Amino acid sequence: MRHSKVINHLGRTSSHRKAMLANMATSLILHKRITTTTAKAKALRTYVEPLITKSKEDSTHSRRIVFSYLKDKSAVAELFREVSPKIGERPGGYTRILKIGNRLGDNADMCILELVDYNEAMLGGDAVKTKTTRRRRTSKKKDEAAVATKAPKAKKETAEESIEPVAELEETAEESIAEE
Fold it and tell me: Which residue, of 100, 114, 125, 143, has the fewest CB within 10 Å?
């Protein structure tokens, strides 16, 4: 019986398991989604969700605690700078496990572990896209003043206007031939 056996040891020693979970958590934070076995994903979820909760409070102490688990500066910076503000109001459940079938080589249950707020397909395309506003370099008043001060542009010749001078040249050429 496995009464009170909370941790899945994943067939590894304690140091190997801690290193593997730290590496997987770093990959999850940097790439927002990883593909792994279901057992590892469930173990990683219990490892990474408390770290994300800790990142909601951006203090030196919480950064040091998270760094002691992840052991990667860039992952800690990404977690506090980008992931934490996006999930700030969420009370928990920061990760999602999507089962994708069995691996061909050893028939292991495979899944995708992802951060919930980063999957645009699940959120719906309209909810994710924010309307962007375009800014002008100058204000409208300056544009109107600039247009008023500029000299009027020379208008382009139309096809009919360009034919008239040619017809005049032909007439003058005929007259000069007739005079000779």
Answer: 125
